[in-house]
Amino acid sequence: MAYMNVDEVESALIALNAAHPSLCELITLPNLTIEGRTSHAVRLGVQAANTVDAYYITGGVHAREWGSCEILVNLATDLCDAYTGGTGVGYGGKYFSAAEVKALMEQINILIFPCVNPDGRNFSQSGVANAMWRKNRDAADSGGDPAKIGVDINRNQDFLWNFNTAFAPSAINFALASSDPSVETYHGHGAGTEPETQNINYIHGTYTRIKWYVDVHSFSQDILYIWGDDESQFTDPNMNFLNPAYNGQRGLVGDAYREAISEGDLSAMQNLANAFTSSLAEVRGTLYQAKPGFSLYPTSGTNDDYAYSRHISDSSKSKSFAFTVEWGTTFQPPWTEMENIIKDVDAGLIGLGLEALGVDSFIVTNRDTFSSYEVATTLTYPDSFYVIYDGFAPSSLGVPGASPTIQFLDSIGGGPIASISVAAPSVELENPGALNTPQRITFTFEVDFADGSAFTTETRDIYVHASFAGMQDVAMMHLIQQPNPYLVDGPVSWLSTDLRVFQLQPGQKVNSSSSVVLGNPDTDSMAPYTYIQGLLAEMRGYGNNPAPSFENISQDEQASQLELSRTVGGVRVLNFAVAKARYRAKNVNATGVRVFFRTFNTMVSDLSYTTNPGADVQNYRRTSDGATPLLGINSFFSGVGNQIVSIPYFAEKRIDTSAFSMATQPDTTNQRDLKHAGNIEALEYFGCWLDFNQADAQFPVNVPTGSDGPFAGRVAIPELIRGIHTCMVAEVRYQPGAIDPISNGATPASSDRLAQRNLSIVESDNPGSTATHTVQHSLLLKPSKRAFNRFAIAAAAAEPAKATSYYDELVIRWNDIPRDTLANVYCPDWNADEIIALAAARPGPQQLSKVDGNTVACAVSDITYIPVPARQQPLPALLTLQLPLSVREGEQFRVDVEQHSGPAFQRTIAVPRQVEGRRSLQVASFSERKVLGAFRVTVVVKAGTALLEKAVRNLAVLRYILQAIPPADSWHRVFVRYIAQLGDQIKGLGIDPGLIPPSLDDPGIPGRTPGEERECFTGKVSEVIFNCFGDFEGFVLETCGESHRFKSTEKGIKEIVLRACKERLLITVCVAIKHDGTIQGIIVRCGCA
Fold this sequence. Notes:
This protein is α+β, with helices and mostly antiparallel strands. It has 4 domains: 6-357, Aminopeptidase, CATH 3.40.630.10; 517-548 and 556-758, no CATH class; 762-904 and 932-995, no CATH class; 1014-1085, CATH 2.40.50.70. 19% of the residues lie in helices and 30% in strands. A hairpin with a 7-residue loop joins strand 29 (632-634) and strand 30 (642-649). The radius of gyration is 35 Å and the shape is globular.
């Protein structure tokens, strides 16, 4: 083959339309060239024009750049042939799956105009002497001189066309543009005068949803993004090409003038350009650079700057991210090399298109480590990993119905491991009602072991491989076979079955299986320690048989709630935790095993493990000998010293931290030798008193750097808590060798030495008002501090990171909560516009909206993804849910929250594949993304006194905590909002929240006698009763399916019920149970008629 002539280019487009009429529309351009030629373009895709976004590519602008036409004709042909055949497209080492081709052809239009300047190309190909011709063949300004024929089509656009006025005199040279017809960059006698320019712009004007534009040129092996006239800036939007105040200043490096662009747009174009270079590099290793056009040299009137500037000049026009590709190292390389360049650039253009769509696939591991000792007792592991497909319409992948094929391999591309499989997955969609809309599709997989035969060595790395519609994804997992004490999570990692919690009042037992009774801490300060030590002794007395007193501790989410208030109804409440450690070994004992118990200040989305003393956030600090747990700290707290993020607890009395270091804390009760028992699983029990609701001063709000005590300025532990419910983690500490058996970055889900109990119970009224249906809880986000994309094939080029990879994701699974629930997340340390912009950079339904500068609202569907930008410090936040008024008492709803590490932990690799019977290589996504932490919020619908009592208690203790939070601490702003919302709920329940003081103890409901019991009924007044003399005697309230009659002669009550009856208002009537149903209060539900 050889380069095509002009007629062959046009014939190829016509033939492509004839071969694929439903995919390829032939566009006849309206403007004949100077020599009378008709030009054509094609529109690819199954969607009608202007119903979807469009990707516009031009080529052949400069006559001598022959290969540009071949690049684009080949691209159009490959896409049509692959889509029709249901196959992918391969270029050397780069392969695009059938699903990716389908996404391009079904989700957007692709506009390809391969030969913009046919007259110039024809002249350039007419002989060796003319080969370097650049311009078109317009002789209007030549004055009959052949050397002055032509206009540069890439200097003729209406973007700073009048360069002599717009640019600084010292910036003007032949490369920028020229007003001399004899110069190659002659810009013409006016902006947009040339028919070739007008044809380019005809497509811009006709196809109104062009979002991406690429002009293909040669040569320099670059992809250039705007601007070309000057350096960019995003601080002053008025410093732009439209502002005549800056005429005479443009085009210089390092001066005051820089062209305005939004930071988001610049970031998006850098990402797209990087996608082009990385895809191109995978073909044969050629490295192109992504850089601003101005870095090459200043220009005016170019196609790319014009394409992007159109929306700035006229806001009604679509914004087009615009680029110029400069392929190769010469204008007309030998055809054999040009064939390779065609593959390079077509791969880059497809890669850019897929990045524009946001198409991606990857695996997120929730559990990536499995122990042979776990598998000996538990063969099934739900929610072990997720396979995610981003930017695809579910219908294009056959979803719902179709799902990825999963294999576990002994190496990448190696043999399958037969004893490990998966169950049929569940699938979650961002918008289940829009199967033709591109969105994120999440498959959740359970890992099933047939037996323990896969555990062949002490440690074994294996690979989970997902294949779907031609896409390949790989992630690593670990199998370990070491004698080690461990804890079993059970089906839900954040509700470990081997970690139990409970609360007791003096004189109570944990359950009927136990004989140990809690003493009175008011008369015996050692009562809590005596109790937990006695309970552990009782459990240990059962040896390796399960202890009934442990097994019968309820795992029910409501029954296992802990209490943050010191008293309830005037009676002390104490909280405890117990862990069951397991051990399997034939002849080796595990000596000196410890279990450390810690609570985190609130619901925490990242519980990853590190004890590195240099880490900024250390969740699991301990003494250097590993014997004693210490405070977890965040060294990036804005105040003095270090903010406490986790607190350890013990089965023995705390040392006096005003006089001694925490390193001297004894806890021999929680140090045990675990004896080997052959094939029998050995059991041992550990526990602690969770004294986080006690008033004794223990630690300072800010810990001095490097100090573990003694401390001054101490406060009680409750004053360090940042939510009604906290997260607890138990750590099995046993390290017989030099290497920590818990790997850096491990989580309670991935490590069997970490067990988590992490749930939040929040309560809504029934039926109530908007305020009483609003529930909330605080949470702490721990963003990744840095991120980088690691493309294996371009590692040597030190490719810059994708700007959008600098974030993790908060993933919220809404489960069974009503879909008309209103949800939002408030975080004083993030910018709502930034969060929404990051979310918008990914394809799919836009589920986030701005409430205020720090609050993002979430649409409730199957699943929501909220970007968490990289920050040095953790981010305090508040999750608020406003349930619909239709919920009923007794209903429960679950919301599961996870933090996923972001795209920084993803790279591409080559894996073997079969193509037409031959073994070849295919690019796969190798993911190290994982679930960093998780918790569940359970919403319980209640009514009556129990709900009000709990709300009053919570408000009192939150106000008590707020007193200790420094105003500069971000938690202060979170608590102000938290307390305001809870106060509104209490007000909606008929109590003035202003009457509730800050208190660690239960203050009781204002205006009520302690112990007074009430029953409340909510409904509408159906009858108002008067006697024969016309005196008011009472009324009848209709609730759901029941009628209740209330007696009263009070004039005020008569007036209320008459109005409620007339206006059909919803009211709540509360009566004293022990006083013959005497009405104690009536709440009128405003707005609930």
